[in-house]
């Protein structure tokens, strides 16, 4: 599948089949995504692959409504990064995007759930996820990406969706 086709097919999938995703495939997606560019090639991003159903549900409760897609997700990847890097937020975002594109390429669906600077009932979603997954001090959690085989169909994107007024040439 060409990259352009992957981009057109990538949609947020919130309903997954109750079919486990092979661990080797999740690890392969994680490894390839960590080849994403980073500021000064510092590679501050770490990933936590989670396929334990109880742990996924615990993560879901950290941000009930926004993480509802985890209800059926057989796996998720938590994207964290070393906050000592001045580019950690951008670097982690690029890795997360790579994960989602790699999911499409491998016949999987995914949905990004934001954790960074989000709160539920006054409690930091990042802090709760760090506690659940034993993520060390000095690391920030950008997002949780639910992963699985899609149990819903969504139309692919088309280039006609792009508002060409958002493309500027040489000046705004």
Structure write-up:
The structure is a single chain. The strands form 2 sheets. The chain has a 4-stranded antiparallel beta sheet, sandwiched between helices. A two-stranded antiparallel ribbon has the order 4-5. The model has no long low-confidence stretch (mean pLDDT 98). It is globular. The protein has 5 helices and 6 strands; from the N terminus they run ααβαβαβββαβ. By secondary structure, it is of the alpha+beta class.
Classify the secondary structure makeup into a structural class.
Answer: alpha+beta
Order of helices and strands: HHEHEHEEEHE
Major sheet strand order: 1-2-6-3
Mean pLDDT: 98
Please report the number of helical segments.
5
Parts with pLDDT < 50 across at least 5 consecutive residues: none
Cα shape: globular
Radius of gyration: 16 Å
**What is the helix fraction of residues, given as a range?**
25-40%
CA(first)-CA(last) distance = 34 Å
Largest sheet: 4 strands, antiparallel
The percentage of residues in β strands lies in: 15-25%
Tell me how many strands there are: 6
Features:
single chain; 172 residues; alpha+beta; four-stranded antiparallel β-sheet; two-stranded antiparallel ribbon; 6 strands; globular
Summary, kept brief:
The chain is α+β, with helices and mostly antiparallel strands and 172 residues long. The chain is built from five helices and six strands; from the N terminus they run ααβαβαβββαβ.
